[in-house]
């Protein structure tokens, strides 16, 4: 019970820290508003001239990018940078001497900030939604519920992928040097750049977990996946969550085994 209270307090602290700079937080949502405005004018021009992207209608493609942009600005694909930094400077020793799970602590810490960013992004993008609502598809309540479920799976996948990236500091030092490559790779393999079902690599991406970060939640909210399909994807998504958790545990144990607490 004490551990539970501790983890809940971690979540509350991170939410408070995220809300501390409200103005900066809301201004940062313009990083999503401007790209969405560009998407709108580009796709309106393309579809207005008779063009089309796959089997997506203009409303469908705009709604897809609206959802994927919100998720792109929210999902924790880098997890917590403090993990790699604490490995490098020796602060990780603090966690190793305490009766707590570093994984659980990091996840709840990231979850707190994710809640803040999601709230800010939704508020910021609501301006765009109001402005172009006639060009969007309104999701059903059923699709929203399924979308929330897959967003949670996407969060788990994104966090654990980013957590493993940070754990690479046990062997390779600071991973920030590959952050841009990682960001682009996850965005592309996850469907944030182009819907995965219209790429020639669809079958390859279908066997990777990254599609649950952006593509699947957006497809579900659009109603492009049936109820039977949602159940099938749910089973596969949960399977990936289990596999990634096993991998993070394995990498953590291997890393800690050779950890020498530099600077500690």
| Percentage beta strand | under 5%
Mean pLDDT: 88
Count of DSSP E strands?
0
Number of helical regions: 13
Q: How many domain regions?
A: 1
Q: Can you summarize the main beta sheet?
A: none
Q: What is the string of SSEs from the N terminus onward?
A: HHHHHHHHHHHHH
Instruction: Give the overall silhouette.
Output: globular
Poorly predicted tracts of residues: none
Report the C-alpha radius of gyration, rounded: 20 Å
Helix content: over 70%
- How far is it from the N-terminal to the C-terminal residue, by CA? 31 Å
Structural class comes to mainly alpha
Short recap of the structure:
This protein is mostly helical and 264 residues long. Helices cover 73% and strands 0% of the residues. The mean pLDDT is 88.
Give the helix/strand layout.
Elements: H1 2-19, H2 22-28, H3 30-48, H4 58-72, H5 81-89, H6 92-96, H7 102-132, H8 141-167, H9 169-172, H10 179-190, H11 202-206, H12 215-222, H13 227-258
Helix pairs in contact: 1-7, 3-4, 3-7, 4-12, 8-12, 8-13
Keywords:
single chain, 264 residues, mainly alpha, 13 helices, 0% strand
